[in-house]
Amino acid sequence: MTSPAETAHSDIVLDRLMSLHPKIIDLTLDRMTRLLDALGNPERHLPPVIHIAGTNGKGSTQAMIRAGLEAQGSAVHAYTSPHLARFHERIRVAGDLISEEDLIKTLEACETANGDTPITYFEITTCAALLAFANTPADYTLLEVGLGGRLDATNVIDKPEVCVITPVSIDHEQYLGDTLGKIAFEKAGILKRNTFGVVGPQEDEALEVIERQAAKVGATLKIHGQHWHVWEENGRLLYQDENGLWDLPMPALIGSHQVQNAGAAIATLRILGVSEDAASDAMTKAAWPARLQHLRHGPLVETAEQCELWLDGGHNPAAGKALSEALDRLPQRPLHMITGMLNTKDATGYLRPLADKAVSLQGVSIPGEAATLSAAETVEAARSVGMDATVADSVQEAIETIKARDAAARILICGSLYLAGRVLRENG
């Protein structure tokens, strides 16, 4: 456990790094290659890399791959974003969250090497993660793309062991393009010559682009529905490819979309030579916070009393659809939603698949986020799809309101990873 003073130290360094470039997102690799060169190119000294891109399911797929590799005794580095409660969550070094001491050391090494040259927060913190990984022995490195793929800060690995592309859908149009094909082109930019590319379920427009890019660079694809198949049968997960059939437990992560994510994870583990027993552990031991997470302890749970409290960080129309289906798998109970979203997201598209599931919705603003959608705007989006929606000043107030209305409610806090992180911090 780090002390408050230590935590404050890393926060101070992170705040300094935030000021180095006026743009939060600026897609190019020039600044990354410059700083990595100055650091001695740590990206060239990593254990075999599994690189994961896609619109939805990247984090869950990574969590299952990591659980499978660790089940066979491998030490695994893992990089993901954004964090929920603490920045340290982004960097897992040989299985453990990076220590406060090592985080400060690597951040300050990157800060010194960079000087005052402009570089985005995500770029310099990605360099810090790569430096931490290069300095610690491990068997594998899992890298989750931050945004897109082709020009993402993580796309500096010349020859990854496996590239994974989870389902592609419309999101971040202002950065990646306004069609599925354009977005798929950016995601497919992680594919490299003479490497395997595991491709999750895709719409035809996206798959055509991914296949074209793979042919161009010389990557060998393993495509869902062609080279591997996954399905649920009698409460079990069945996975089939050219090497045979595996009969596995269902994923601990809830929802049919997690079946597809599990398939991509298993296809990757098969390429890496993981056993069926380890793949079973990948299904049962993977954990991924804020993906339909049942909160069972903490101050907010105590406030909810007899109400169930759930948390989900999905935030686009595809995530809304997946969440709707996953809710159908839970025992029946009246659903009340507490929703906060960013103003860069399609709130109406996200809420539409959930409209007939919820008795009510409480709209909240996300505290501390400049890009939050106002509570009133969230309520307006909810009402436009037929939901009974009202404004709440806070998550705490919303829980109290719902509890007074229905003491046996299922309360779902949802709409943004930033809101989810805030809730996890408030809930201890």
UniProtKB/TrEMBL annotation:
Annotated Gene3D superfamilies: Mur ligase, C-terminal domain (3.90.190.20), Mur-like, catalytic domain (3.40.1190.10)
Keyword set, alphabetical order: ATP-binding, Folate biosynthesis, Ligase, Magnesium, Metal-binding, Nucleotide-binding
GO cellular component: cytoplasm
Sequence ranges assigned to domain Mur ligase central in this UniProt record: 52-268
Metabolic or biological pathway, per its Swiss-Prot or TrEMBL entry: Cofactor biosynthesis; tetrahydrofolate biosynthesis; 7,8-dihydrofolate from 2-amino-4-hydroxy-6-hydroxymethyl-7,8-dihydropteridine diphosphate and 4-aminobenzoate: step 2/2; Cofactor biosynthesis; tetrahydrofolylpolyglutamate biosynthesis
Enzyme Commission (EC) number: 6.3.2.12, 6.3.2.17
Domain spans labelled Mur ligase C-terminal: 301-416
InterPro entries xrefs: Folylpolyglutamate_synth, Folylpolyglutamate_synth_CS, Mur-like_cat_sf, Mur_ligase_C, Mur_ligase_C_dom_sf, Mur_ligase_cen
Any one Pfam family match given in the protein's UniProt record, by short name: Mur_ligase_C
UniProt keyword Ligase, yes or no: yes
Reactions catalysed: 7,8-dihydropteroate + L-glutamate + ATP = 7,8-dihydrofolate + ADP + phosphate + H(+); (6S)-5,6,7,8-tetrahydrofolyl-(gamma-L-Glu)(n) + L-glutamate + ATP = (6S)-5,6,7,8-tetrahydrofolyl-(gamma-L-Glu)(n+1) + ADP + phosphate + H(+); 10-formyltetrahydrofolyl-(gamma-L-Glu)(n) + L-glutamate + ATP = 10-formyltetrahydrofolyl-(gamma-L-Glu)(n+1) + ADP + phosphate + H(+); (6R)-5,10-methylenetetrahydrofolyl-(gamma-L-Glu)(n) + L-glutamate + ATP = (6R)-5,10-methylenetetrahydrofolyl-(gamma-L-Glu)(n+1) + ADP + phosphate + H(+)
BP GO annotations: folic acid biosynthetic process
Gene Ontology molecular function terms on file: ATP binding; dihydrofolate synthase activity; metal ion binding; tetrahydrofolylpolyglutamate synthase activity
Named cofactor requirement(s): Mg(2+)
SUPFAM superfamilies in the cross-refs: MurD-like peptide ligases, catalytic domain (SSF53623), MurD-like peptide ligases, peptide-binding domain (SSF53244)
Known function: Functions in two distinct reactions of the de novo folate biosynthetic pathway. Catalyzes the addition of a glutamate residue to dihydropteroate (7,8-dihydropteroate or H2Pte) to form dihydrofolate (7,8-dihydrofolate monoglutamate or H2Pte-Glu). Also catalyzes successive additions of L-glutamate to tetrahydrofolate or 10-formyltetrahydrofolate or 5,10-methylenetetrahydrofolate, leading to folylpolyglutamate derivatives.
Protein family per UniProt: Belongs to the folylpolyglutamate synthase family.
Protein name: Dihydrofolate synthase/folylpolyglutamate synthase
Biological classification of the source: Bacteria, Pseudomonadati, Pseudomonadota, Alphaproteobacteria, Rhodobacterales
